[in-house]
Design brief:
Elements: H1 13-19, H2 21-24, E1 28-31, H3 39-48, E2 53-58, H4 61-74, E3 80-84, H5 90-101, E4 118-121, H6 141-163, E5 172-176, H7 189-193, H8 202-210, H9 212-223, E6 229-234, E7 254-255, H10 263-272, E8 287-288, H11 290-293, H12 295-302, E9 313-315, E10 318-319, H13 331-345
Parallel strand pairs: 1-2, 1-4, 2-3, 4-5, 5-6, 6-9, 7-8
Antiparallel strand pairs: 9-10
Helix pairs in contact: 1-12, 5-6, 6-8, 9-13
Length: 351
């Protein structure tokens, strides 16, 4: 058997998927946040080439249908299951999880048996307004979408993941973090447990929510005692801005995704010069393509070299634990975050 290739900055999701095609074949995968021209869409598109079934999710049914149509137009033989899911709503999460858990028996047996093998937490909310907005469940919106919702979804779908384990395969959960997780001081436990408008900063909250992903990968791997391998990652060295001055904080690598088409985000990006007045990626910045940005997600989900590295943090499709901030590596904070989140959802997440 030939040696596996070394992935790099410019490796694409399709290239990673092609390398691990045999590992992907027959697997059932759920990817959250799969709107067209986003990282989740690209992840789902390339995995669908080989997977038995890819469940795509989104809170907007029209966009979800468009993603399904676009993937099937490219390859009509792929199996896609669109699942309506709003990660900011506990009720929506419970309804979606119940739908997935019911996908078995004669009607769906050609797609999904009693389990699936990979859960990819790609969806995220990004603060584009300075205003504080709680969800109907009383959680700050970014924390709800980026952390609490994925936690509840993982808890409800864990039995299906656990059922997929074999002597030679351990199911995986993948959390998308961001280079921004290192900009702040870590999880804001006060805002998470006692959300309030006073002193609220949307950008700092985004950084804080992204610091939860590495902690969850560490803690889920530990608590499952080898039954689930969890990983976190940064898709690219992204561009982030101060909401006070809209000035550039870092300019390493930028990925042009659908989020930049948001009117507020687009205006900010144009103001910094990251986008041209026409809304196109500016020259001179080290942009990653969408295909390159999704590569690390595919690697985290299927690279067999990660089998004995549960809890690892990835960048550019390689293990990069040195890029994980200290506050997102702390086992005490990981345990505290898990316990606090159990209280928020009102349920224990045990194995």
């Amino acid at each position: 058997m030939s040696a596996l290739p070394t992935f790099s900055f410019h490796t694409t999701a399709e290239e990673v998927a092609d390398v691990f095609a045999n590992e992907i074949r027959g697997k059932n995968v759920l990817v959250t946040g799969t709107s067209l021209n986003g990282l989740g869409f690209e992840t789902a598109r390339v995995l669908a080439k080989y997977a038995n079934l890819v469940i795509i999710t989104g809170y907007n049914q029209e966009r979800l249908k468009l993603s399904e149509y676009t993937i099937k137009k490219e390859n009509p033989a792929v199996k896609i299951y669109p699942l309506t899911l709003d990660l900011s709503s506990f009720a929506s999460i419970r309804k979606a999880a119940a739908e997935v858990n019911a996908l078995e028996g004669p009607l769906h047996s050609k797609w999904l048996s009693v389990q699936f093998q990979v859960l990819i937490h790609n969806a995220a909310a990004f603060g584009t307004s300075a205003s504080f907005t709680p969800t109907i469940d009383g959680v700050e919106t970014q924390y709800a979408t980026n952390h609490v919702g994925p936690f509840l979804l993982s808890k409800l779908l864990a039995p299906k993941l656990l059922a997929s384990a074999t002597a030679g395969y351990t199911p995986r959960v993948v959390y998308l973090s961001s280079v921004a997780h290192g900009y702040g001081t870590g999880v804001d436990f006060d805002l998470l447990t006692n959300p309030k408008a006073e002193g609220y900063d949307a950008f700092k909250t985004y950084w804080a929510t992204k610091s939860t992903a590495p902690l969850m990968a560490i803690e889920l791997s530990k608590r499952s005692k080898g039954k689930i391998n969890a990983f976190s990652l940064e898709p690219g060295r992204e561009l982030f801005l101060s909401n006070s001055y809209f000035r550039l904080l870092t300019c390493e690598t930028v990925i042009f995704t659908a989020s930049m088409e948001n009117e507020v985000v687009s205006t900010i990006m144009k103001g910094t010069g990251a986008l041209t007045p026409e809304g196109k990626p500016a020259e001179g910045l080290p942009w990653k393509t969408l295909a390159e940005g999704a590569a690390t997600t595919v690697a985290a989900a299927f690279d067999t070299r990660l089998n004995d590295q549960a809890g690892a943090y990835l960048a550019d499709s390689n293990v990069a634990n040195d890029k994980r901030a200290a506050h997102s590596s702390d086992p005490d904070d990981a345990e505290r975050l898990w316990t606090v989140t159990e209280k928020i959802i009102g349920e224990k997440f045990t194995f």
